[in-house]
Specification:
Elements (H helix, E strand, L loop, with lengths): L1 E9 L4 H6 L4 H6 L2 E9 L1 H8 L6 H16 L6 E5 L8 H7 L4 E5 L13 H7 L2 H8 L2 E4 L2 H7 L6 E3 L20 E6 L12 H8 L4 E6 L10 E5 L6 H5 L4 E4 L5 H4 L4 H8 L4 E3 L4 H5 L5 E3 L3 H12 L2 H18 L2 H18 L1
Parallel strand pairs: 1-2, 1-3, 3-4, 4-5, 5-6, 7-8, 7-10, 8-9, 10-11, 11-12
């Protein structure tokens, strides 16, 4: 049995921890890989961060101490899997001293920009190239999309693209009954809700033509005239049911360097439930959305045209939804990603 210890930055409340680490545990065990996941910052930390309340210092100190203890006792581990970052604000050479075992580095955001784009000049100077060193020192790298993969190969020859996927035996579509209003849906977190204002103008114009609902799950929704905006809390128990209530799933993004590193996971969730999608033509959105399963919209008029097209053609919505579901099953599902991750782990351990 290969023993892998995944060191996540955040707890299970973070989608990346759930979908890039925790959902692989059972499947890897069947393939002879014992994956254990340990987080540095727990879910309470994220809850405080999302609602902008003060974070208690003791849980952070406790998390740091626990991680140091794990690194001291690393003789029982064949391979570490570092997800996002081992320690915030710790220079890479010090992390390399602590990681005496080989490690696989996994990332699904443009973390290499974290300190370069930060407001602290000292951090930009001391840590701006931190992730270049982290990438270079990894036994293998798994990158969530083509943009991240393209960056990683500059520093490491052993890079595999591993998209963020869903378990398609759990994400199942249901038969939809048309409602009075066109229901447009978005799912995310308070941090990514900052992209929603891009939809205000096109949705407001669409609302003048007929009833429209915007359902926002897990983030703060903007006010939109002529649209019934419904803000709902996120829950793992209800997210699939709510996504299945959408007529259209949306993912607006700005065209900047950070957004181009996003892995289009919202679209993966919508499409797994056979929901047709409209998205900004940015980063992984371009990889995921083919003409058969969704539409790309680069400006206000394009968003309005795409939403109108899907509103006016229920048959097209169904056709695109079914094609999107098939695309996820074939390319973005747990059963296709599991053997890829197992092979990367086995190869990394074998080389080490």
């Amino acid at each position: 049995m290969i023993r892998v210890l995944a060191l996540a930055l955040y707890g299970p409340l973070a989608a990346s921890t759930r979908y890039r680490l925790l959902q692989y545990v059972d499947g890897l065990a069947r393939l002879g890989i014992d994956l254990q996941v340990r987080c540095l910052l727990n879910d309470d930390y994220l809850r405080h961060r999302f609602d902008h309340s003060a974070t208690a210092l003791w849980p952070i100190v406790k998390g740091l101490a626990s991680r140091l203890q794990i690194l001291v006792a690393q003789s029982r581990v064949d391979l570490f899997m570092v997800h996002c970052e081992l320690f915030p604000f710790l220079p890479a050479p010090l992390e390399r001293i602590l990681l005496r075992k080989p490690y696989l580095y996994d990332f699904d955001d443009a973390f290499y920009l974290r300190y370069r784009l930060g407001a602290r000049p000292v951090a930009r100077t001391l840590l701006g190239n931190k992730f270049d060193t982290v990438l270079a020192g990894a036994a293998s790298v798994t990158a969530g999309n083509a943009v991240l993969e393209g960056y990683a190969v500059k520093f490491n020859r052993s890079v595999s693209r591993l998209p963020t996927v869903v378990d398609t035996t759990r994400y199942l579509p249901v038969k939809r009954t048309p409602g009075r209003a066109l229901r447009i849906g978005w799912i995310g977190s308070p941090s990514t809700a900052s992209y929603l204002p891009e939809l205000v103008a096109p949705l407001s114009r669409l609302g003048l033509e007929g009833p429209v609902e915007l359902v926002v799950i897990g983030g703060k929704a903007p006010a939109i005239s002529n649209v019934d905006v419904i803000e709902l809390p996120w829950s793992e128990d209800t997210e699939i049911v709510l996504i299945n209530s959408f007529d259209i799933g949306v993912m607006p993004l700005p065209d900047d360097e950070w957004a181009r590193g996003k892995c289009a996971f919202k679209l993966v969730q919508y499409m797994a439930c056979a929901v047709p999608v409209v998205a900004s033509p940015v980063g992984a959105n371009r990889e995921l959305v083919s003409p058969e399963c969704g539409l790309l919209a680069g400006d206000e008029n394009a968003w309005l045209d795409c939403l109108r097209q899907l509103r006016d053609d229920p048959g097209l919505r169904q056709q695109m939804g079914e094609a999107g579901r098939q695309r996820i099953v074939e390319h973005y599902s747990l059963h296709t990603a599991l053997p890829k991750l197992a092979h990367v782990i086995q190869s990394a351990v074998g080389r080490s």
